[in-house]
Amino acid sequence: MSHIIVTGVPNDGTSALPPPRLEINDLVNNEKHFSLFIQALQRMYATSQSKSESHFQLGGIHGIPVIPWEGAGSRPVAGTRFGGYCTHGTVLFPTWHRPYLAIYEQILNKHATDIAQTYTVDNAAWVEAAKQLRIPYWDWAVNAVPPVQVISSAQVNITAPNGQRISVANPLLAYRFNPIDPSFPAPYSRWPTTLRHPHIAGPNARSDVDEMIDRGVFAFAAANAPSISASAKELVSNTPATHAAPMEAMRLFAMPAAAQAPLAEPSPTTGSTYTDWAARIHVNKYITGSSFSVLIFLGPVPEDPAQWRTCESYVGAQHVFVNGSAEECENCRGSADSDVEGFVQLNRAIAARSGLDSFDPDVVEPYLKEHLAWRILKVDRSSYDVADAASLQVIVIATPLGFENGATSPHAQSIDHKAYKTKPATLHKTPRSHPLLIIPHHLVHTSMSQHAVVTGVPRTPAQSTAPPRREINDLVKDKMQFSLFIQALQAMYQTSQKDDLSHFGFGGIHGLPFQRWETSGPGNPVGRWGGYCTHGSVLFPTWHRPYLAAYEQVLQGFAVKIAATYTTPDKTQWANAALNLRLPFWDWATNAVPPTQVISDATVTITTPNGQQTSVKNPLLAYPFNPIDRSFPSPYSRWPTTLRHPTSEGSGATSNVREMISDLQSDANDIRSQTYNLLTRVTTWPAFSNHTPGDGGSSSSSLEAIHDGIHVDVGADGHMGDPAVAAFDPIFFLHHANVDRLLALWGALNPNTWVSTGPANGGTWTISGNATETATSDLTPFWNGASTYWNSNACRNFDTSLNYTYPEFVGLQGQDANTVRTKIGAIVNQLYGGSTRRNFAFATAGAQGATGQSIAAAAQSILNVTQHTDPAPPAAMQLFATPASTPAAASSLRVAPHTEQVHVEISGGGQNKFYEWSARVHAKKFELGGSYSILIFLGQVPDDPKQWRSAPSYVGAQHVFANSQMEDCENCRRNATENVEGFVALNSAIAAHSGLNSFDPQVVEPYLKKELSWRVQKVDRSAVDLSQLPSLQIVVVALPLQLHHGEMFPKAGTPVHHHGITEGRPGGHHTASS
């Protein structure tokens, strides 16, 4: 026999019925079938392209390289080209493909059978699986988007013949030509692999998976009620079982809208009709010379063709599948006058957009005559002028559908045709719909709005108070909430990046890809936009509050939907766990290093809906871009996931977790001190809110300045270290939840202080650079209604306005402000007061200088006799504030037994004062073109910059969090001269390194003048010459602190600036500075 015979997969006689082809979503979940399928496909790819049974040759049957296959047919007549075997446009189209698939399946199964024989583990089961394997199908009418194993996963996990699970290159993603066939015309001659939605025509093109996926799910919303959509919604809610009985649902919805009331209980014997509307499209197949689409719209059509498929007025299309090399295809040239026909259904779009109350022709026809429009789009996303398509005819057809008693399907009655001419699209915008089936419950588009409205997670009747956001170390220990959190995060990752309510969409609010979110702001900004975030302004803390609330809404909505799928006996507890789930926070001032589930575990174990403990890929580790957005500059354009402390700028970079942990640990003491100082000393909003200097004479770093340091410590030169891309890293939201928590704690300690008036400091896309910001300024882009935004006043009471709280506030609801302040103050002292407790110990030790001990040694002896004071730092402070002129004084201090509140008896009473020393750092934010750090040292500094953060002499740093894409950031350019300010606490380092016995200025100033030094370092660990940062000014500040009896916190005196310590040195005090 000289050619391959198509027999189908041979039947070995063990089964009377042939095995089924599996839907691809089922196949990928079948370990044996999927493993064999992938390996068999790899073998077909590896078979020489010159062989008939190769993937390449079987693909060539359909078209290029237009040569005979297996001797079928003779070569074409000289001077013409063979046009392939496929019978497109004929009555044989469906049946021709049946043996075509059978031969491919036959060869694939043979490879699978051979591979199964090599399995050394459970061989019989693998051999049987191979016998059953058939080519899978993709049911695109049910599953619009194939599984990730088909469209986006670069690697897939399979079981190898030795029984081991391994990761292999995914053959379903693309076929690699070896070589590219010389018959291929451009651009195919330039592409080494098959591509889907190529982003360019050049050899470096890649598949634009995001463009290929169109996950739009219509949610009916209309301006007029009772409309079709409003009535349908009510009917859907009243007929939850109709999914299993579509005919009953059809009868129900076919009834007149005016008769809403009786629709909940339809009569099964009643017949009914309604009108089904469609646009019928006729057009010549070859008018554009390649494949194209005729797109149908209801409403205004954007001018940019690239937006047509994603605009809100797009209904559907007739796609025309055409040979791009028709001039070389004999049967193409022979059928050059061939027309194609297709239909686009209109009813759903009419219901969603029109506000009409009926599908009757006398109601719908005038609407369609005004709103229906169409365009022609080529596959490269360019437009084709409709005026040049003389063959195009769009005809509207109204088909009455009848439901006869007992019928299994509706029958069509007489058809009415209406032809409409095209016209300019000059209509008003219609209400926008959104995928409510994907984003369940909460972040919704109102019937009159065109955007998502942030409401906070709705409170249920069972919730008398708002559920708390939990610290991440606590959440990971809660089996139910952690399992739901992980799955909800995965669901947000899987939502199309084009969706504003996806994880990518939320991340983009903060910076790249510099585009509008939920229609907020002008449609065509001048120049490039710098994002919505209000860095460096009085709105910095409050702007992030509705930002997190919006993310939390979507996350919790997914959790509720996932919880509803649990089939275990405790499914009610799962539902309650979802209702109480909120976004967790990472308290980096207490727990400097997050748990391994956040920073290092590649997989996490969760309980899935079937009750099984399952190991899944950890979404907290990184966000996988799908695809990498085209706006991303290098190196972000090369990294397929977010990275922390990346090991290189190449595409194979990984996160250096050890380096990140080292940086976080090196700054731990400084961060805790800064946090305590912020909460207990700062009493004005400008000094608290942002890192802009000159805002109230504070001696403490602002909330934003401390926040900046966490970004740099976590990200370095990875995503978290750059404002343009920071919010794509999932740890961003845990970090900012803690920033919001500190805002809540500070607000409780300062109940009469809130957002003050301040300059916009460069502004954002929606805030002009010279604007004045107040507590009533819009916190764009976060809508709280059809035409209004959240403002700072509206979200001040977060527990009632946005339905969340923090653990520190549990049980305090309804208490008066003074009671809340007292209780929050005790918690702040307990959590963060350790450094100040030590400082008072140092001060007491300094008063014992006659013993000859250093501050550190004497302080330790005091700490040893007051070991139970940790739970009550105020008592410890009182204790250490007692004058102690002799060593015996310490032993006279009596500590009561450890109880919930520690009581300290003090002999002699009184108060004490000591000086708290810090280095105040000023520098221009954008002077180095990205994020950087000013590092403070006491003692010798290593020559190698990579050793600076781990050196014994390292004290702390002021980290500057700056956009690396300043040229693309309008407000960055406008604010190029912006200064930032921060403080690095020195007392602990002085006590540890100096050997001094006092913090008094006459003792400390000479020491600092000799030992204090600083360095500047970029986030990639490279050193910066101080001459490159001429704006840098470091001034040493001594702040007198006193602890009065009965006071919650130490009282600060007037800070004293010791200019002489740094004056005359590069980066030190300048004569013009304060």
Helix and strand topology:
Layout lengths: L23 H4 L3 H16 L8 H6 L32 H24 L6 H10 L15 H4 L3 E5 L5 E5 L39 H4 L15 H11 L7 H9 L17 E13 L7 E7 L15 E7 L9 H5 L4 E7 L1 H7 L7 H11 E7 L4 E2 L8 E11 L7 E2 L3 E4 L24 E2 L6 E2 L18 H4 L3 H16 L8 H8 L29 H24 L7 H10 L15 H4 L3 E5 L5 E5 L39 H10 L1 H14 L3 H5 L13 H13 L15 H19 L8 E2 L12 E2 L4 E6 L5 E3 L6 H4 L15 H16 L1 H14 L7 H10 L8 H9 L5 H5 L2 E2 L8 E2 L7 E12 L7 E7 L15 E7 L9 H5 L4 E7 L1 H7 L7 H11 E7 L4 E2 L8 E10 L8 E2 L3 E3 L16
Describe the structure.
- This protein is α+β, with helices and mostly antiparallel strands.
- Helices cover 30% and strands 15% of the residues.
- It contains 32 helices and 30 strands.
- The strands form ten sheets. Strands 3, 6, 9, 10 and 11 form a five-stranded antiparallel sheet that branches. Strands 22, 25, 28, 29 and 30 form a five-stranded antiparallel sheet that branches. A four-stranded antiparallel sheet has the order 5-4-7-8.
- A hairpin with a 6-residue loop joins strand 12 and strand 13.
- Helix 20 (668-681) packs antiparallel against helix 25.
- Mean pLDDT is 79; it is low at 77-82, 214-226, 232-272, 413-449, 524-529, 847-851 and 862-911.
Descriptive tags:
about 1050 residues; 5-stranded antiparallel β-sheet; alpha+beta
User: Are there runs of 5+ residues with pLDDT below 50, and where?
Assistant: 77-82, 214-226, 232-272, 413-449, 524-529, 847-851, 862-911
Q: How much helicity do the residues have? A: 25-40%
Gyration radius, in Å: 35 Å
Q: Profile the largest sheet.
A: 5 strands, antiparallel
CA-CA gap between termini: 97 Å
Strand % is 5-15%
Oligomer: single chain
Question: Please, how many helices?
Answer: 32
